[in-house]
Every structure is written in structure tokens, then in C-alpha cells.
């Protein structure tokens, strides 16, 4: 009973957000209402940008307005002022809903058209008969998406939103390339990229002549006898919730400008929305800081000089042909931190790196010259951009001006969940597989869960150029009942619970949420050790579902570490769902036979296939010769073993054997490569038995191959293995190997054909095998790793 109560308590925590709660509980039952449009700009912080341009078009063309319009606003917005800036009185039906309320959840579920210039929240799932238009918010100067180094997770919700959108609005071919390449939409995205300009730029060609009055009404001090200098600094940093700001620097610069050019110019400031909340609290900016509710492009009508740094508004401003100055006082740091697509020095306008240089640039009158390479970025912006998009999206009328791109390729679309992606055999096997699958045939997406640790990031970098990452994040889409079922499934992993409490609907909704309603031909749980990845793959609509069995799965479930069986519950939950997969992929014939015997289920046995681990032998050879080894003592006979320091790898028996071996062969050295839960115990054994002079622990090595290559022998003492990848890699490097007597080692070594198989797995057998190898110095046949790999890749492709 206590466990049941803990399940209910855990689920209740998921229902604190009213909008999310309503959204979850009514997702299946809510009906989309025809001719309804929801607008959301910058998380509801303003009625602005291209969503506003769409709204304004309908307001100015009432003959085309058969729609009910809904604007989303944030709770901190001055709604009275925001409404004054919105021509809502021209339309028949306009309502306003506060973000993260029940009404917001309802509007998000029932609106037919959804127009956003940023992203909807991680719990949003576009319904089948909704039309999602993502306008984004400008032409990027600074790097975006996966072009930002060291931060693949930073784009997780942006990519998810892009994949769900029916239409992505692109202002130019540069932004189209950003969509396709920087966000890796090329090959997978099922919607349409419409490249035809930026709707918000219509205001530049059709300016609002009342803007000066609106600014004064909002509290801005404007002297009509002076010109206007508008300063629009962007934010520093990479992530929205980690945006850096320097308000003191901003205040200091504004004071300097007022003192030196204030007699000629009104100095106005329009900061990035990410830092507006802090800037508005500073009294020194009062009367100059333009409200976040004003769209920056509308301010261009009253602006004579724009001063900016790395903001994308510079491209919009080029349409005006007015003066432009880049004030890049931190260019070196900013470029190193974020990276740039264009250098300000190569763009139209003047450049200043200090406040003194900025004042000098303001005083010098320069004509802005736009060359062809920059002109292409604004070539669509003729004042009729929004009209063409409305005709295309709402009326299906194609334009000769808008270019349309359908990026979905004809390749086979695979998605893998690779597990925790820490450095281990499963991760190495997966990396090898990705490198060997032909790029011309497969489009590969990888689903990652958990935080992006340094180790996981290093492993991801090995495949980043070949795959597209998606991430598990945000709150689940499952309703209360489905979450109860899921928690029961995890706490009581057995066939009965699985049969009667399997959260099919909840898993389907979460799959749609995380996979962004995207279709895949084959979905692979490559980890196979828990329900974590399977829950996002099993109920995906269509596709071939596979799960890998890397070992004798029942033995793994019952593995004892420190008196506990840490894998038992997770592995049992995975096993309980095997029947829902189309194929159970074993990594060797020996593992297949063992799993068929242990699982003893005729239906499951009929689903089992074999696909051996794939080698990336060119990479192994290259890395082995890339650097010199720093561990092997050339004056000694050296043995190396590589593997996680855990019970199944059997390093304890190896050390017991080594204690006797080194007394017989004192000029010997054992190098243990790896890390794991038994490291402290193994180190203690070495110290207690005075073996420190002959045993070296290297810890985790991202490149262990120079050490394997430099050693005389490779020892592989495992108690059990699915298929010893480290053993195969040692054979690639033509090492003489000694392996324990387990089925998979016998299978690889061909009964002593390619290496020496011990008589057992205990210390005595390992000692005897090592001694025999030393005394006979036996040579073995060369392992044909090229042919092995050809067959392994073919086996995998046959299953995919």
C-alpha cells in the first residue's frame, strides 16, 4: 500500500501547471474549431513581430476576415498598453488569453491555426488537423542551432517546434540554410519551408506615421527638433534562461552618448526581450528605454541612425537605406562565445569598438552601400510579404515569388535510443554502427535522455556530423490515469501489470511530443536495459520496432553488485515489453541461444535475430597510431585489459591470477584500462598484495588503442559478454589475446584459431592460460576483420 501511495504522490506533482493540466486531460477529447487563429509572440511578452503582421493584415483586409483571433499574453504584460498598439477593434472577433492558464490550454487545443515567432512550450503537441506556422524572428547574424559549439541541448525545444510546424517562414536563402543545416532539418522535416521574406518587414515599406505619438504616450521623451538614434544591443550568452546582461555598461554608454551627441539626437534604447525585465528597473534609462511591447521594426520610421551590435534587426534596417553603426565593444569575446555567420566589418555601415569611436562614427556622415551578397538577404521585402503568405497558407494560392522547399528525403529514416551514452561497449558499438551505415541510404536520428555530461558530449561529438539529435525533456504528456499506469509498470514490472496497466495512450502522446509527430521507418532501442527509451518508440505510429539484447539479459538482470541487484527492476520492465517489439536483436549467436533458453517464450524466440557488433576498424587503426602510449614499459612484458571495472568483467580473478603470475615472471606489467564500481576494491587488492609496481590503473581513456597496440598481450577475462567488442578491436590491432572460456569468446576466437581461450573463468584458469602463452609464445591466424564487418553490417541492414 505504501508503494501505491508513493506512486500517486509522484504523479500529482506533474499537475501543478493549470494550462498543462487542462491540456493533458482534454487533449484526446478536444475538437479543433475551424477558422480560429492563435497568435503567440515571444512567449506572450508582446503583440509583435511577424505574428502581429499576420494579424494586422486581417485587420486591414476585413473582407478576408472570417476568423476568430486569439492573442496570448504573459501575466507581466501591461495589457491595456498592449491593446492600444493592436488594431483589434477592426476585427469582428478578438480575444486575449493569459499564458499558462486553463483558457490558454483550451485555446492551444482548439485553434485551427497556430502562429508563433519562437516556440511553444515542451508539453505542446500539434494536433493532426491543426496548422502550425512558425515565422521565427529574423535573419541570424550569430550562429544558431547545432552550429553553436558545445551546446547541442540548447536547441532541443526549437528543433522540436520546427519539426512539428507545417510551415516555416524563411526571410531569405541564408535562413533556409540555417533551417536545413544548422537545425539539421534536411532529410527529415515533413513540412514546407516558405522562403519569401519576413512579414514584419512590411512595416518598413508601409510605415506607421503615428509612431512618434505612440512613443510619447508610452513615456518616451522625444524632442521633435532632434534626430533619433536608436541603440539595439542584443543579449550575451547562448541560452535564453542564461542570457547575460551588463546594465551598468549600457547606462554608462547612454550617459556618454547623451553628453556628446545629445544636443543633436534623441537617444533611445531598445534592448533584447531576454534582458528587458532587468533594464526596465533601472531609473537611469527611464524616458529612453522603449517598452518591450513596441516592435523594433516599427521604430525604424522615426530612426535616423541605428546603432546595434550582433542583432538580426540590422538586416531589416538595411531596407531603409539609412545610417547603420555596429558598436561591437566585446567582439572577440562574443565571437568566441557564440560564433558568427557574418562579420560586422564585412557588412554595410560603420564599425566602432569603443564608445569614443562610436561618437566619432555618429558625427561622420557616411552613405550606406549594400552589395549584392547582402541585398539577397532582403530581396523579397517589398511591402507585400504578408499578403503572399496569407494567400499561400490560408487560401492555398502559390506565388511565383515564394520559393517552397520540401526537405523530407527518400532515405530510410532510422531513430535510435542508445542508452546513457557513457563510454562503454554499447556506446562504442553504436558509434561504430553509425559510422558504417551508408549515408546515401539512411537518415539517422538519435534520441538522448538525461543531461549532456562531458563524457556523453565527447561521445556525441564522434557522430555529430552523421546524426541528428533529439532529446527527452520537459513534462510528460500523459494524463493522470496514464501516469498511474506507467508508475505501476515501473514499480511492478511483470506480465500481469504490463497486460492490464500498459499506458498505450500515454506512451503514444509522449512519443508524439518528443519525436515531434515525425515519422520514422525503423525505431531502435539500442540500449535494451530499461523502459526509458522504449516508452518513446513503442507507440510511434508505424515503423519497425527493434530492441537490442547485448547479453544474456536474465543474467544481467540478476547481476549482484555490493549485495544488490541494481539492474533487476529496469531490465524486468524492458523484458515485460519484449512482446511489443517486432524484432529482438541479439549481438551474437551465443547470446541468441542463451536468451532463447533463459526467456523460454516461443513467441519471443520467433522474433529473435542476430546482428553482431559492427567494427570501425579504420578508426581503431588510425587512433592506435595517432599518439604514442604513455603507460607501457617497453623493458617489461606487458599485458593490457580494457573494460568497465565491474563484476562481470572479472578483473578480480585476473588480479588473483596476476599475483602468482608476476612472482613467476617478475619482469611483467599489467595495465588495467577502464573505470567502474569495483575500482576502489581492485585498487585495494593491488595495494594489500604489494602489486603496485606491476599493476597500473589508467582510469577511463577516450583513446585506449595506443596502449593496446604497445602491449605484448591482450587479456579478456570476462565472466560473461554479449559480444566482446574490446576483444574484436584487439584482434584488429593483431594482438595476441588470452580470453576466458565463455560462449561469445569461443565464438570470436574460433576455438583457439585467432587467440587462446582459457579452460575457464576462475583465477587458476586465467593464470594457466597466461603462463602457457608466455612459455609457448604461440602465433595465431590473422582475424579477417574486413569480412567480419561486411557480414555484421549486412546483418544489421537486413533487420533495419
Automatic annotation (TrEMBL):
Cellular compartment(s): Cell membrane
Membrane topology, record value: Peripheral membrane protein
Protein name per Swiss-Prot or TrEMBL: TagF_2 protein
Designated gene of the protein: tagF_2
UniProt family annotation: Belongs to the CDP-glycerol glycerophosphotransferase family.
The UniProt record lists the keyword Cell membrane: yes
E.C. code: 2.7.8.12
Domain Glycosyl transferase family: 634-780
InterPro entries named among the record's database cross-references: Glycerophosphate_synth, Glyco_trans_1, TagF_C, TagF_N, Teichoic_Acid_Biosynth
Alphabetic keyword roster: Cell membrane, Membrane, Teichoic acid biosynthesis, Transferase
One GO cellular component term: plasma membrane
One function term, GO molecular function aspect: glycosyltransferase activity
Lineage start: Bacteria, Bacillati, Bacillota, Bacilli, Lactobacillales
Annotated signal sequence range: none
Keyword Transferase: yes
One BP annotation, GO: teichoic acid biosynthetic process
Amino acid at each position: 500500500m505504501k508503494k501505491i501511495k508513493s506512486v500517486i504522490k509522484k504523479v500529482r506533482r506533474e499537475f501543478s501547471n493549470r494550462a498543462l493540466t487542462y491540456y493533458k486531460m482534454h487533449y484526446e477529447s478536444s475538437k479543433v474549431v475551424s477558422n480560429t487563429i492563435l497568435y503567440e509572440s515571444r512567449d506572450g511578452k508582446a503583440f509583435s513581430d511577424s505574428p502581429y503582421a499576420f494579424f494586422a493584415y486581417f485587420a486591414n483586409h476585413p473582407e478576408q476576415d472570417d476568423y476568430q483571433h486569439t492573442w496570448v499574453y504573459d501575466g507581466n504584460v501591461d495589457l491595456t498598453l498592449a491593446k492600444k498598439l493592436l488594431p483589434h477593434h477592426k476585427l469582428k472577433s478578438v480575444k486575449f488569453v493569459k499564458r499558462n492558464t486553463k483558457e490558454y490550454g483550451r485555446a492551444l487545443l482548439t485553434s485551427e491555426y497556430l502562429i508563433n515567432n519562437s516556440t511553444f512550450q515542451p508539453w505542446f503537441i500539434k494536433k493532426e488537423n491543426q496548422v502550425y506556422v512558425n515565422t521565427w524572428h529574423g535573419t541570424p547574424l550569430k550562429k544558431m542551432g547545432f552550429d553553436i559549439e558545445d551546446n547541442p541541448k540548447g536547441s532541443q525545444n526549437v528543433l522540436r517546434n520546427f519539426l512539428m510546424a507545417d510551415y516555416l517562414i524563411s526571410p531569405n536563402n541564408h535562413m533556409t540554410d540555417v533551417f536545413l543545416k544548422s537545425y539539421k532539418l534536411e532529410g527529415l522535416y515533413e513540412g514546407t519551408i516558405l522562403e519569401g521574406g519576413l512579414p514584419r518587414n512590411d512595416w518598413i515599406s508601409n510605415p506607421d506615421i503615428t509612431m512618434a505619438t505612440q512613443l510619447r504616450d508610452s513615456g518616451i521623451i522625444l524632442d521633435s527638433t532632434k534626430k533619433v538614434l536608436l541603440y539595439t544591443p542584443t543579449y550575451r550568452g547562448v541560452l535564453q534562461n542564461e542570457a547575460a546582461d551588463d546594465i551598468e555598461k549600457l547606462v554608462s554608454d547612454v550617459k556618454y552618448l547623451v553628453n556628446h551627441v545629445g544636443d543633436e539626437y534623441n537617444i533611445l534604447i531598445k534592448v533584447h526581450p531576454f534582458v528587458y525585465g532587468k533594464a526596465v528597473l533601472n531609473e537611469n534609462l527611464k524616458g529612453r528605454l522603449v517598452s518591450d511591447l513596441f516592435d523594433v521594426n516599427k521604430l525604424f520610421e522615426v530612426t535616423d541612425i541605428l546603432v546595434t551590435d550582433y542583432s538580426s534587426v540590422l538586416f531589416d534596417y538595411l531596407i531603409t537605406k539609412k545610417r547603420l553603426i555596429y558598436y561591437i565593444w566585446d567582439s572577440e569575446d562574443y565571437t568566441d562565445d557564440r560564433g558568427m555567420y557574418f562579420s560586422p566589418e564585412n557588412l554595410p555601415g560603420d564599425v566602432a569598438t569603443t564608445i569614443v569611436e562610436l561618437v566619432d562614427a555618429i558625427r561622420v556622415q557616411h552613405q550606406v552601400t549594400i552589395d549584392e551578397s547582402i541585398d539577397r538577404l532582403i530581396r523579397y521585402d517589398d511591402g507585400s510579404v504578408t499578403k503572399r503568405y496569407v494567400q499561400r497558407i490560408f487560401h492555398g494560392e502559390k506565388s511565383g515569388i515564394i520559393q517552397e522547399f520540401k526537405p523530407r528525403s527518400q532515405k530510410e529514416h532510422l531513430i535510435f535510443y542508445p542508452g546513457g551514452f557513457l563510454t562503454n561497449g554499447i556506446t562504442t558499438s553504436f558509434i561504430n554502427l553509425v559510422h558504417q551505415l551508408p549515408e546515401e541510404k539512411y537518415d539517422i536520428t538519435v534520441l538522448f535522455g538525461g543531461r549532456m555530461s562531458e563524457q556523453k558530449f565527447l561521445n556525441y561529438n564522434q557522430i555529430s556530423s552523421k546524426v541528428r539529435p533529439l532529446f527527452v525533456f520537459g513534462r510528460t504528456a500523459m494524463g493522470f490515469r496514464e501516469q498511474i499506469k506507467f508508475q505501476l509498470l515501473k514499480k511492478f514490472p511483470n506480465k500481469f501489470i504490463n497486460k492490464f496497466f500498459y499506458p498505450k495512450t500515454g506512451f503514444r502522446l509522449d512519443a508524439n511530443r518528443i519525436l515531434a509527430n515525425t515519422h520514422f521507418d525503423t525505431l531502435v532501442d539500442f540500449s535494451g536495459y530499461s523502459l526509458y527509451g522504449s516508452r518513446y518508440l513503442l507507440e510511434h505510429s508505424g515503423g519497425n520496432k527493434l530492441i537490442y539484447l547485448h547479453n544474456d539479459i536474465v543474467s544481467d538482470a540478476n547481476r549482484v553488485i555490493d549485495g544488490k541487484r541494481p539492474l533487476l527492476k529496469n531490465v524486468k520492465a524492458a523484458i515485460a515489453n519484449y512482446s511489443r517489439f517486432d524484432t529482438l536483436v541479439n549481438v551474437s549467436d551465443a547470446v541468441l541461444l542463451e536468451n532463447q533458453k533463459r526467456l523460454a517464450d516461443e513467441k519471443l524466440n520467433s522474433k529473435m535475430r542476430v546482428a553482431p557488433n559492427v567494427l570501425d576498424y579504420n578508426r581503431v587503426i588510425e587512433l592506435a597510431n595517432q599518439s604514442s602510449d604513455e603507460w607501457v614499459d617497453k623493458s617489461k612484458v606487458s599485458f593490457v585489459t580494457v573494460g568497465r571495472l565491474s563484476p562481470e568483467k572479472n578483473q578480480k580473478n585476473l588480479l588473483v591470477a596476476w599475483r602468482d603470475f608476476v612472482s613467476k615472471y617478475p619482469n611483467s606489467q599489467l595495465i588495467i584500462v577502464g573505470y567502474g564500481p569495483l575500482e576502489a576494491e581492485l585498487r585495494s587488492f593491488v595495494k594489500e598484495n604489494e602489486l603496485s609496481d606491476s599493476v597500473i590503473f589508467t582510469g577511463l581513456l577516450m583513446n585506449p588503442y595506443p596502449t593496446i597496440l604497445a602491449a605484448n598481450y591482450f587479456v579478456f577475462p570476462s565472466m560473461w559478454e554479449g559480444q566482446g567488442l574490446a576483444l574484436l578491436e584487439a584482434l584488429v590491432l593483431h594482438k595476441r589475446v588470452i580470453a576466458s572460456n565463455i560462449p561469445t569468446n569461443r565464438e570470436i576466437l574460433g576455438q583457439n584459431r585467432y587467440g587462446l581461450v582459457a579452460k575457464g573463468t576462475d583465477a587458476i584458469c586465467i593464470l594457466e592460460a597466461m603462463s602457457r602463452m608466455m612459455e609457448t609464445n604461440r602465433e595465431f591466424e590473422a582475424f579477417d576483420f574486413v569480412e567480419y564487418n561486411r557480414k555484421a553490417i549486412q546483418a544489421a541492414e537486413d533487420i533495419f
